[in-house]
Specification:
7 strands; oxidoreductase; NAD(P)-bd_dom_sf; oxidoreductase activity, acting on CH-OH group of donors; SDR_fam; Sc_DH/Rdtase_CS
């Protein structure tokens, strides 16, 4: 049997933050394929960056598993409304909260809104992220550095701190790290630094929260085909994106969602402090 041919995407570029409508090919978030089995029945979840990419796939999967969902997103209103449609078609409630997670004041509104809508938080998925590719440190402005830290690290800290008082034993916090936390790309230096920080924050958090019965884990994705890629990488890198891993292709967001479902579910009652690699065969340390 011949080896599968590595897949690629046409060279393409978008403005930050990127939208699904302009992507070629369109990512698969499990819209037609994900089948739930009641693993999150009755839970209330908050997902940042839930309009597209991994967050959208997780929102669809969580809803089909029985969870109500609050989706935090920047300004991709059409993508967010489309995600909400899939959540509501699964018979679950979907709350959309638009705004810039780099803004500390906005960060502080998200958990209170979830508590207002659901009465509690059972699952928190800190998934929103910003990255930008640069060939040198000198090209990274102070403003971009601060923005990357604010979105990727500070928002995670703020939402986690705000959520814990509204979590009961059995609740779960899931943070999106990256293969870059261990194998940092030289062109994604700011992003890679934050992803290493997420991994370490989560490992510390799991130990801190164990006595409360709250679990904390992180997921380390490899290359995933989302709007962030054509919006933040040069066209030639988009075309070869994903070919560097042993499987020779980027993941579809739908291939990440089952890991988040497991970590959110009661089936993972003894899984805390873990970092789960979803990398197409590229090991993490």
């Amino acid at each position: 049997m011949s080896e599968p041919r590595p897949e690629s995407q046409p060279a393409q570029q978008q403005q930050v933050p990127g939208t699904l409508g302009e992507m070629d090919p369109k990512p698969d978030h499990g819209e037609e394929s994900y089948r739930g089995s009641g693993r999150l029945t009755g839970k209330a979840a908050v997902i940042t960056g839930g309009d597209s990419g991994i967050g959208r796939a997780v929102a669809i999967a969580f809803a089909r598993e029985g969870a109500d969902v609050l989706i935090s997103y920047l300004n991709e209103h059409e993508d967010a409304k489309d995600t909400a449609k899939y959540v509501e078609e699964a018979g679950r409630k979907c709350v959309l909260v638009a705004g810039d997670l780099a803004d500390r004041a906005h960060q502080k509104t998200i958990i209170p809104r979830a508590v207002e809508e659901f009465g509690r938080v059972d699952v928190l998925v800190n998934n929103a992220a910003f990255q930008m590719s640069h060939p040198s440190v000198e090209e990274i402005s102070d403003e971009e550095w601060d923005h990357t830290v604010a979105v990727n690290l500070t928002a995670m800290f703020t939402l986690t701190k705000d959520a814990i008082p509204h979590m009961q034993p059995g609740a779960s916090i899931i943070n999106s790290s990256s293969v870059n936390s261990d194998n940092p790309s030289p062109n994604l230096i700011a992003y890679a630094m934050t992803k290493a920080g997420i991994a370490n924050f989560t490992a510390s958090l799991a130990q801190m929260l164990a006595e409360k019965g709250i679990r904390a884990n992180s997921v380390a994705p490899g290359p995933v085909w989302t709007p962030l890629i054509p919006a933040t990488m040069p066209e030639e890198k988009v075309e070869s994106f994903g070919q560097q891993v042993p499987m020779g292709r980027a993941a579809q967001p739908a291939e990440l969602a089952p890991v988040y479902v497991l970590l959110a579910s009661d089936e993972a009652s003894y899984v805390s402090g873990a970092r789960v690699a979803v990398t197409g065969g590229k090991p993490i340390l």
